[in-house]
Request: fold
Amino acid sequence: MTPDTSFLLIGALATKANTTKDTVRHYDQLGLLKSRKRQAGSRLYTEFHPECVERIELIKSAQAIGFTLAEIRENLNDYYDGQLDIDLQLTIIQQKLTQVRKQQANISVIVALLTERIEVLEQMKKEHGSKLDIEICKKKYQPDAHNRSD
Reply:
């Protein structure tokens, strides 16, 4: 029986998928890729199904929109087996969108705080130069300790 030459060794798969062998190994360990072991003399080789090129591209595109490898693993085989539940996918993607919108709101707050901090520092630099004495800072930019009621 002749060996199936359509299967790819790790280097060939990594090259075709425009990724690294370490990435291929990691995805294989997580069960994201279809592979098989082949004995060749004293060595054991891992061979990958040709569809793994497409799988890696799909994994990378899902990661690019915010999905974790664990989240991808939950549905990847269903996709390839033709068992993908569209209603479940809609729910998952809607939840991801909600999560990303919350992250976006948090980032907007951080941008506003950093912008405010830059404005304060630029004003301080105008008034005092590049270095600011800690005593000036305490007097000007912190509430006066004598005016507080205990």
In short: The CA atoms of residues 71 and 120 lie 42 Å apart. The first helix runs from residue 10 to 16. The radius of gyration is 28 Å.
